Amino acid sequence: MRRVSYLPRSESSTSAASTSVADATVIASRPRIDDVARVASCSTATVDRVLNQRGGVRGMTAERVLSAARQLGYVPQDASIASVLAEPMRLSFLLPSGTNRYLHMLADSINRGSDLIKPYNVRCRCHTTEGFDPHALAAALLKLARHSDGIAFMPLEHPVVREAANELDARGVPIVTLISDLTHSHRAAFVGMDNRAAGRTAGLLLSRFIAAPPERECKIALFAGSLAYRGHEEREMGFRHFLREHFPGAHVVGLREGYDDAQSNYLQARQLLSEHPDLAGIYNVGGASDGIARAMAEAGRARNVVLIAHGLTPDTRALLIDGTIDAVINIYPQTLVLNTVRVFTNLRDGRPALNGVEPARINIVLAENLP
Q1: 2 Cβ contact partners less than 8 Å away, ≥ 6 residues apart
Q2: Most buried residue, 18, 94, 162, 203, by CB count within 10 Å?
């Protein structure tokens, strides 16, 4: 959309000597940007953004600015709000399909929108694709690029995904990696928690809940959605490093990939508990912890196996309350959406991608501090 500047045109170039007193009076009487700001009760920066179509201003505020500008003769009387507001930035979010309830909550937050993102003049829409097929993910990215001004997605660590992401960047469609990052890609920013720190946090929580001396031998198990997600791999690395440093008696009896599917996690957890009746704890790096919890309950182990999970959802909330899950490591979906929108609007307005975007905090949720 072509920008149309409503700023007054400068005077024709003439010498100071030839400027008449009448001309000077006319120039002095012309409204200025600070006059519009005063009448509209806002800053000059806001006036500039509205009249020069830079977006990021609430509709009511933009209408107030335009009304003041018309009143003062700063813009034509027939100028409408539609003529000064830029078209909304079209943002697409691409998430894995499946039964991961946290991702369903994130999709709902994206599609519903909220008052938090209204000032940014964006239109957000969530799309899904097969979560563990890199070729399907790459194809979906290239398809979305045809009608998107920016794309945020959960990447699989795979060359075909990396190439698709870099092709989008070459086309001028900025990309943001969400929850999990993508190495050696031309993404504009990563939005999510520090996954290595999250894994170390899980190690600390599990060791404290087991409450055994660091040297005492005990068995620990790991579940992940897929190590094709760099974020899941980083969580595993952080977890194992913490145990080696602070809980050397812990022995990890393997890592199971459940693809964030409750039934898959249930079947693998049932077998795990049968093979290791002395299992002390489980860290689920990914989603669908309800499947693991169901196997623990059926085996009568819900209260003697420590379970650390990710993502506060209705099911993990209930499992915290009944004591099956001991702690949930969480980042609120609204935070992810807002930070992503801020990144894209920074890029639109020519600012550094992470300008004013605070790092996502890792929240530790227990039964006693449930929000």
Answers
A1: none
A2: 203
Q: Which of 223, 245, 244 is nearest to 235 (CA)?
A: 223
Quick check: pTM over 0.85?
no
Domains of the chain: 20-84 (1.10.260.40), 89-192+333-350 (3.40.50.2300), 195-330 (3.40.50.2300)
Q: What is the DSSP string of 205-220?
A: HHHHHHT--TTS-EEE
- Please give the Cα distance from 253 to 246 (Å, whole number): 18
Q: Closest by alpha carbon to 166, among 148, 190, 187, 193?
A: 187
Looking only at the bridges linking them, the beta strands covering 218-224 and 250-257 are parallel
Which residue is it, tokens 């600070």? 34
Question: What is the distance, to the nearest Å, from the Cα of residue 365 to the centroid of all Cα atoms in its chain?
Answer: 19
User: How many C-beta neighbours within 10 Å does residue 296 have?
Assistant: 25
Residues 133-147, buried b or exposed e (16+ Cβ, 10 A)?
A: bbeebbebbbebbee
Contacts 24+ apart (CB under 8 A), 302-309: 305/273, 305/279, 305/280, 305/281, 306/206, 306/209, 306/210, 306/280, 306/281, 306/282, 307/281, 307/282, 308/202, 308/205, 308/206, 308/209, 308/281, 308/282, 308/283, 308/284, 309/284
For 15-121, where are the alpha helices, taking DSSP H only?
Answer: 21-29, 33-40, 44-51, 59-71, 81-84, 101-112
Rounded Cα gap, residues 201 and 309, in angstroms: 11
Structure tokens at 320: 């915290």
φ, ψ at 317 (rounded to 5°): -60, -50
Of 22, 55, 46, which Cα lies nearest the Cα of 344? 55
| SS3 state of residue 324 | coil
